[in-house]
Amino acid sequence: MKPKIRRFTLPDLAAGYPGDFVDDYIELLHFKDFAEPLAADGARLEECRFSSVQIQSLRNARLIQCELEQSGAPALAGAGVFLNDVRVEHSRFGSADFAEAELDGVVFENCKFGWLNLAGAMVRDVVFRNCQFEEIDLGGRIQRVAFEDSRTGLLTCTGAQLREVNVEGLDFAQVQGIEFLRGAQISSLQLGVLAEEMAGHLGIRLVN
């Protein structure tokens, strides 16, 4: 089953400023072209847009119907964040730590990640489209997630609970925790790449 992505359109937004983050509830603002990184730990943001800004920290924040474009951070601290109906486009993250986070109805498109950490996260109805990763840690509860035209050096699945996860569109160089791929949909070409590692895990000796 494909991810269920709910479409939304943001209304007209007022200009947002760094001082707005002293409030715990922020809505209907457009944050654009800030020189300093933003931190929104514990904040609730609804119907907001971030354009060309660095977002340093979103620990335990809640983003609902928000858009991020041409944004990112060298290291995004997002443990415990809740992303609901969020679009992230043309953005770059040295690392994005979403440990113990919840992502529901999120689209990442044309994004680059050094390391994406989803260990312990609950992730459902998420699409990664034309994204590049150095490493992905899928060690959470992952349901109805699809990768399209994407690539990663390392795919770590240790501890993952996968359900209806389509990795056919993910080109990977290496997989760790292959026994946790149960519940994933792969291509025949990917099966060939994984064959030797799967045989080793099962104790099967390959003879040329």
Automatic annotation (TrEMBL):
SUPFAM superfamilies the UniProt entry points to: Pentapeptide repeat-like
Protein name per its UniProtKB record: Pentapeptide repeat-containing protein
InterPro entries on file: 5peptide_repeat
Species for this entry: Glutamicibacter arilaitensis
Top-level taxon: Bacteria
